[in-house]
Amino acid sequence: MVGRVDERLREEARPVHREISARAGSAPRSHPPSRGPRYDYDSTSNGVDVEVAVAADQSVQHQCPVVQTLPGPVSGAASPPGMKTALTVVLPCYNEAERLPRTLEAYLAHLSRVPGEVEVLVVDDGSTDATSVVAEAVAAVDARVRVLANRPNRGKGSAVRAGMLAGRGELLVFTDADGSYGPRDLDRIVRALAQAPVAIGTRAEAATGPLTRRAASRAFNLAIRGLLELPFRDTQSGLKGFRRAAAQEIFSRTRLDGFAFDVEALFLARRLGLEIAEVNVQARECQGSKVRMAVDAQRMLGEVWAVRQLAASGAYGGLPVRHRQSKAALIDDSYAADIRQPA
User: Fold this and answer.
1) CA-to-CA distance for 56 and 69, rounded, in angstroms?
2) Number of H helices, E strands in the chain
3) Rounded to the nearest 10 degrees, what angle do helices 261-271 and 211-228 cross at?
4) What is the pLDDT of residues 31-65, one digit of tens each?
5) CB 3.0–4.6 Å: which of 178, 189, 205, 310 could bond 315 by disulfide?
6) Assigned domain for 215 exists
7) Do 186 and 326 belong together in one domain?
8) 174 in the same domain as 190
9) Do 89 and 107 meet the contact criterion of CB atoms below 8 Å apart?
């Protein structure tokens, strides 16, 4: 039975693999592929023979050392002894076999290729398509990628929590696997983490967009302000970053597995007295959103109420009932300001 399911997933993945292989072309390899470290992965879907080439963008280079674009092949060497991982990028995934390859390609082309400096952690939240097969194929030829299986499917909140607690980076950023946020937005979050232990993306289009979405967003924000006293303009952006100590403090306490996990994380950050930087980002509208406006909005409001109840019952480990003094700063106010510099 397992063999038949595995073969079905491979069949689903083959069109995506062909596309990746076409991009790789016939570039020579100076070393055999080296599979990156994995955690709790079902070995029945290993062994996909796929060539993946990540083309480096050599036209620009960002000032932050962990997001530089460097020429040359991807190294499969192990991290130097004693070297700390500077950045972990967490990609929570559920049935993203089609969109994940392009997202990985964009980020891997942009991130540092210094062995051990950066990792991209793909968290497969119990996908029923070939997401894990595709992710493992990339991990087989790029040591910066590793795959974490979160089974069975529990929800985005659970996947993000697993990635944040398993990540090795001194900075940890989670973003959407569908490519809604590009490497430039990642740069902005990383830079903000030099100023605050938590940095959250704020979408300018959250104030525009379709009327029904704006109305739902407005109602949700009012509920958050009223129930949890959170002052942020955009709590649901899919791009948020944390210093390592902050990530451990927050995500070791989170309970929600659904889409309102962002609200819970920000609520806990405020209770812990952590400064939170709001960073303007630009989200790209992607087809195939898994958010169902009417159903999920109602469920998210229920989860917001649950956070309030959990806090009142002391379920968050004895944190104060009221928020500690913490600042919420808006930085990088002009999105037009390009933080990348010519190489």
Assistant:
1) 6
2) 9, 10
3) 30
4) 333 333 332 323 233 333 222 222 223 222 333 44
5) 310
6) yes
7) yes
8) no
9) yes
